[in-house]
Hints:
Layout: H1 10-29, H2 38-52, E1 56-57, H3 61-64, E2 68-69, E3 75-81, E4 86-90, E5 99-108, E6 112-122, H4 123-127, E7 131-133, E8 136-140, E9 156-162, E10 165-170, E11 175-179, E12 182-183, H5 188-199, H6 213-228
Parallel strand pairs: 3-5
Antiparallel strand pairs: 1-2, 2-3, 4-8, 5-6, 7-8, 9-10, 10-11, 11-12
Protein name: DUF6998 domain-containing protein
Domain DUF6998: 38-107
Amino acid sequence: MNSDRPTLTQVQIIQSLAEALSWFEKEVSWGVSPGELNHLTGRIGELYAAMITRGQMAIDTNQHGYDVVSASNERVSVKTVTTSNHVSFNQNTFHHVDRIMVLRVNVDDEKGISVEELLDIAADDAQTLMRSRDGKFIYSIVRGNREERPVEDLEITARASYADLEIVQYESGAIRIRRDGEVQPGVVKEILRPIATEVGVDLFNSKGGLKNTQQLGTDVIRALNARSNL
């Protein structure tokens, strides 16, 4: 079978993924629900899978039931969600698939848009985790809260003072607001915004979307420190 689809380099795949994520972020900032961006979400998942497997996009996804062919010649079926609690696979084409990847595009006010790997295993092993219904294999997504270490256990990489507040950034990128050494309650971004306006930090990123908490906090710390050095 001949195909007009070009072979993409890893650099092109990574660039395309960045562009797709940027467009997704812009749509969300315009008020579009992530659940309404199914086509874009699917493209993000396919590009992400092609990137981490060093693979290529499949020629005809609808016919074969897989989306990516990895560098090790695995045929990978990729499902990407935002809010859905399950994904389904066509039983008629499942025998073509070697590997299953289930991804989630997360929208986080602090970290922005990110891709999370929910499942990445061999197709035969994945089938044991699914139930069969109406010609499809159904995989249920369990929303669990992964235990996190306290951010205070990490090193502080940047800090700046504003009035009686201290804005600190940890090595994970997390931003916290402290007063007298105590972390202040409330939404960090809401505290940062008026400070940003006062010190001349733009609330929007170069793509036109609102900066997430980590981006805004980084820029505010930099601006405050620059002002204090004048």
